[in-house]
Amino acid sequence: MDENFADLCRPRDQMEVALIRMALEGSGIRYYIVNENLNRVLPVPSSDMVLRVERSGLAEAAARLKDVGLELEPAAPKR
Fold it and tell me: Taking CA 41 as the corner, what is the angle to CA 76 and CA 57, rounded to the nearest 5 degrees?
């Protein structure tokens, strides 16, 4: 994994992914969603997706997600 990026949260479904994209696109914050394509192929709610954000933009990304009403599960490691 890229060490310049950190896990921020776990989107539960494609609706939350769309809201994340809406909040972050055009902001200049670099991010990607782990397992996003897998969730599209198997459209069942999954906590296997992880939003990874460039470390320098973590605080701003979290604030933007909160501004659009997203309260997502933290991306704590799974056991």
Answer: 40
